[in-house]
Amino acid sequence: MGDLESVGARRAAHLFGRNSALIEQTRIVVDTQANADLSQTNWEISPLIDTAVLQDQRAGYLREALATRVVRRELGRDDRDDE
User: Fold this and answer.
1) What is the 8-class DSSP label of residue 51?
2) Dihedrals φ, ψ of 39, to 5°?
3) Can you give the pLDDT at residue 79?
4) C-alpha dist (Å) from residue 79 to 6, 68, 74
5) Does pLDDT of 4 surpass 80?
6) How far is CA 82 from the centre of its chain?
7) Is the distance from CB of 54 to CB of 46 less than 8 angstroms?
8) Rounded to whole angstroms, how far apart are CA atoms 32 and 34?
9) Span 17-25, average pLDDT
10) Dihedral, CA of residue 46, residue 47, residue 48 and residue 49, to nearest 10
11) Does residue 83 carry a pLDDT above 60?
12) What digits encode the pLDDT tens for the residues 22-58?
């Protein structure tokens, strides 16, 4: 009877291991998809915020920052000079 119990325990352990692996694989797929969907949602929300809330002020700030960087390079100053 001990051999039969041992075989049953090994089968149960094997079944548990396979099920655990399938659950973990599914969790990874779900996490990856959720992350992709959230990233896409953030990309779609950002322009709405720029337009409705900030009234495109963020775009103006970016243009100003880039213009400042161009001028600094033309003058021979590197952005790292301020560090």
Assistant:
1) I
2) -60, -45
3) 58
4) 70, 10, 12
5) no
6) 31
7) no
8) 6
9) 96
10) 60
11) no
12) 999 999 999 999 999 999 998 888 888 777 777 656 6
